[in-house]
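Long-time lurker, first post. I've been practising inverse folding by hand and with some scripts of my own, and I keep getting stuck on stretches where the structure tokens seem ambiguous. Below is the full token string for one chain I'm working on. Before anyone asks, I'm not after the true native sequence, just a reasonable design that respects the backbone. If someone could post their per-position residues I'd love to compare against what I wrote down in my notebook.
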């Protein structure tokens, strides 16, 4: 399947909603946290598979602002897994020239998580290959509201005029400033929604939904998603005739 992929049409940025950990564990008669622990292999395959194909950015929806409402023991365990995962994976990221970045309200994370993220980002900041973006304590509406506050403050202070507000300015005030919008969104577990994820950035993103539960996601599933992406016609409001090359 990998050989069938057109290397000239690889999405520059892939976003992933990693869904189904709890259901995967329940199917095995285990606690939900068992699914979260077994999701690390899927994360590793998604990152490695993307890097092998030349993807420049992969954003992983790791923890939403809504996830804080889950049972405390599950949230605490998720934070522990995050710390361990960062510790374990940074050496591999260094070896493979991968940079670590984050979006979201990371100040709301526990101190140990913030410190490990800081160290991971600092250690990998000079890497020039693919960038792995972890969306942590993140939601699209939260991000947009933060951007609106920044712009309002600039208008009130006189730094800019109301007429200066543009789509480009809004994008520059988002957490993803400087990162291209995703061309492909993958969501696992059979759910068909975007769940408050990258609401601004997904305006023209191709959406791919799979029944595979996240802990079972492997490179072959990534390849399936990219092949499906490559079969689609991306028109951006134009007609099919307009985007077809003329000879």
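-- Answer (accepted) --
I ran through it position by position. Result:
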């Amino acid at each position: 399947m990998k050989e069938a992929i057109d290397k000239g049409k690889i999405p520059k940025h892939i976003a992933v909603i990693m869904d189904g950990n709890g259901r995967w564990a329940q199917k095995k008669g285990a606690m939900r946290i068992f699914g979260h622990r077994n999701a690390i292999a899927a994360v590793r395959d998604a990152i490695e598979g993307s890097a092998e194909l030349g993807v420049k950015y992969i954003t992983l929806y790791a923890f939403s602002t809504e996830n804080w409402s889950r049972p405390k023991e599950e949230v605490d365990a998720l934070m522990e897994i995050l710390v361990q995962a960062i510790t374990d994976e940074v050496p591999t990221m260094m070896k493979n020239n991968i940079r670590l970045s984050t979006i979201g309200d990371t100040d709301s994370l526990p101190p140990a998580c913030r410190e490990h993220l800081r160290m991971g980002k600092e250690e990998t900041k000079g890497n020039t290959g693919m960038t792995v973006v972890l969306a942590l304590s993140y939601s699209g509406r939260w991000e947009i509201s933060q951007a609106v506050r920044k712009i309002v403050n600039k208008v009130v202070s006189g730094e800019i005029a109301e007429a200066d507000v543009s789509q480009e300015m809004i994008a520059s005030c988002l957490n993803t400033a400087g990162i291209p919008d995703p061309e492909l969104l993958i969501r696992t577990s059979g759910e068909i929604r975007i769940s408050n994820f990258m609401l601004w950035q997904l305006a023209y993103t191709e959406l791919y939904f799979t029944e595979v539960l996240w802990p079972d996601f492997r490179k072959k599933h990534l390849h399936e998603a990219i092949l499906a992406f490559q079969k689609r016609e991306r028109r951006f409001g134009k007609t099919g005739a307009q985007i077809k090359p003329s000879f």
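A couple of notes from the structure itself: The two ends are 31 Å apart (CA to CA). The chain has one domain: 11-139+181-232. Happy to go over any region you disagree with.
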